Amino acid sequence: MRILPLLAILAFCTSALAGPNDVVHPYPAQKISADTYVIHGPQGVPSVANQGFMNNPAWVVTQEGVVVIDPGSSVQVGRMVVAQIRKTTDKPVTHIFDTHVHGDHWLGNQAILEAWPNATLIAHPDMIKQARNGADAFWIKLMSDMTGGYTDGTHAVIPTVEAADGQAFQIGGKTFRIHSSTDAHSKTDLMIEVVEDRILFTADNVLNHQVMNIRDGTFKGVMKATDRALALNAKRYVPGHGKTGDRKFVEDQKAYFSTLMSEVRRMYGEGKSDYEMKPVIAEKLKAYQDWAEWDTNLGQQISLAILEIEQE
Where are the domains of the chain? Predict the structure, then answer.
């Protein structure tokens, strides 16, 4: 008679504990303005070494509560973020913005709702659609595979509120303005402007000292988003990966992509193949060779740029 209740308790505990490693190694939050904090994760791909944590979770403390942006890649990462939030404020999390469909940015939703179950989850409508159509399972498996099972126990909590381009969310005395696109880094991207504080969360449309994996997006869209970010003239830019800074790193990314695309276009017109282009472009871009994922993504970017040019 007591077996079923016992099994139910065990099932709940298994989900809550999420395996042998409950929380990733703690990373300190950096206060970048009077009300805004960012945890700058290590750069690189998810791995056993980084426990799957490699993005920049952030939060803004408002008059009503806390607005979280991109709580990370797993329930374990999310719990670390929860602990850091609680060091900065006693206010509850009221809203979560997930900037795009790539799971390293949003699978931490689970942990935020464990702590604050009434939080509202907001994202690009295409992100919500893709997550419901299988991207959730894809990213859960990918994170588990790349971390040797460290992130097991994570389940997808998919946002329910759609954010439109130009929409302004008024939350606790602050304005969160949406700058969205359907052709940039993932084709499901939000950049989020905190108007009063002149802060722009660029998500993965702009990275700081990191060569972008662009297989799910387009160069045209990323370059357009980069120009849009610069036109907003924010005081502080928070990238999806890499350190927070001023507009300089956004200008650096613009220069990188402008050089890459112009060189690919020139050599494509000369009939060159991607492997012939790579050493020439690597030399042209040698100022960026210390960027994270240079060796991994430069060749891929050249091949993808050729495909994009062929589709014009």
Answer: 18-246
